Amino acid sequence: MAVQQFKYSNSVVIYPFLILFLIWAVFWYQVQIDYGIKSLGIRPQKIEGLLGIFTSPFLHGDLNHLYNNSIPLFVLSLALFYFYNKIAWKILLYGVLLSGFLTWLIGDSGNHIGASGLIYVLVSFIFFKGIFAKHYRLIALSLIVVFLYGSMIWYVFPIKAGMSWEGHLGGLITGFLFALIFRKHVAKPERFKWEEPSYNEEEDPFMKHFDKNGNFIEFEKAVENDVESENESERNTHEASKINYIFKKEKE
């Protein structure tokens, strides 16, 4: 019997919703109360710009920017919490920090904001992790990610003005590194009982339905055969004990 490794729980949906809610709440605050927080993004190679590593994923330029990031972030977070539940928070938190730092390091200028860097972390991690794991479900997930978001690869290059390609590239590199670093956290290919090293064919209830020639035996007959084999084993043991007893008597 295969061991179930991917289990659904309420957290699979609740956590992505909470992340999305927090990002939208910050945007509401930005629009309704303090528009100035928009300037708290990553400012490359400036000491004060390091603060943006922590704040930039929650800041967005406009509603369209927020909307375009919300759907992939939610979908990818769902996949992350379902397939990689044990390390999901590590990927998210460390992903924000490392991708943000790389953006700060390689960025030329400007104020880099938005959750797209984190999205690239998730796309990269889920894709490469599935390939490294060699687990059919995770490989299938990698292919789905490529199908849905494969075109995003072009935006790690400076092909569109006003878009933080540095943040995208930082996220892509971070996801790849995490797929390597967290190699031990790989789902093992599902194994059936008969694939286990400790498997004993003679004790398998299903295999008892077949005789030595591979012919199927009905349940009643299989039970009778078991009883007969047990009786024969008992008789053999009894005969052996009788022989030993006679041998001892003769010896005396």
What does the secondary structure layout of this molecule look like, with pairings?
Elements: H1 11-32, H2 52-55, H3 63-83, H4 88-106, H5 116-133, H6 136-149, H7 165-181, H8 219-251
What keyword list fits this structure?
252 residues, mainly alpha, Rhomboid-like fold, 8 helices, disordered C terminus
Structure description:
The chain folds into two domains: 11-181, Up-down Bundle (Rhomboid-like fold); 200-251. Helices cover 59% and strands 0% of the residues. The protein contains eight helices and no strands.
What share of residues are in beta strands? under 5%
* Poorly predicted parts: 243-251
Distance between the termini: 57 Å
Q: State the CATH class of the largest domain.
A: Mainly Alpha
Compact summary:
With 252 residues, the protein is mostly helical. Helix content is 59%, strand content 0%. The chain has two domains: 11-181, Rhomboid-like (Rhomboid-like fold), CATH 1.20.1540.10; 200-251.
